[in-house]
């Protein structure tokens, strides 16, 4: 389980995928999970699960982070959002059993 400055888990490393622990995911949690996935599996990340709005949000954010979405929704050709700047301290902390 991975936590972001709080006690509720943000996401879990489920072996071959990152799984969210609840249905409402903040931008901070999604960004941290995408950074984690890119660090573990490289910049091409398969997006699955969630509704179309979540898929588009995840694809757009992944692209802003320098990743490439594969599967699922692709980000729109243009975005009104500024690219997300990577930082070394995402506030991400792992708790619980190791795998």
Describe the structure.
This protein has 99 residues and is of the alpha+beta class. The protein has one domain. The chain is built from 2 helices and 6 strands; from the N terminus they run E-E-E-H-E-H-E-E. It has a 4-stranded antiparallel sheet with strand order 3-2-1-6, covered by helices on one side. Strand 2 (9-13) and strand 3 form a beta hairpin. It is globular, with a radius of gyration of 13 Å. The N and C termini lie close together (10 Å).
Characteristic terms for this protein:
single chain, two-stranded parallel sheet, 2 helices
**Low-pLDDT segments, ≥5 res:** 77-99
**How many beta-strand elements?**
6
Rg over C-alpha atoms, rounded to the nearest angstrom:
13 Å
Which of globular, elongated, flat, extended, rod-shaped describes the shape?
globular
**pLDDT averaged residue by residue:** 75
Task: Describe the structure concisely.
With about 100 residues, this protein is of the alpha+beta class. Helix content is about 30%, strand content about 20%.
Write the layout of secondary structure elements.
Blueprint: E1 2-4, E2 9-13, E3 18-20, H1 27-41, E4 44-46, H2 52-64, E5 68-70, E6 92-94
């Amino acid at each position: 389980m991975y936590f972001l400055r709080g006690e509720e888990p943000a996401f879990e490393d489920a072996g071959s995928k990152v799984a969210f622990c609840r249905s409402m995911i903040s931008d901070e949690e999604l960004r941290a999970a995408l950074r984690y996935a890119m660090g573990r599996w490289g910049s091409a990340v398969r997006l699955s699960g969630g509704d179309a709005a979540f898929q588009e949000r995840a694809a757009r954010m992944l692209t802003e982070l320098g990743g490439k979405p594969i599967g699922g929704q692709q980000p729109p050709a243009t975005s009104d959002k500024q690219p997300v700047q990577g930082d070394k301290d995402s506030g991400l902390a792992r708790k619980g059993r190791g795998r």
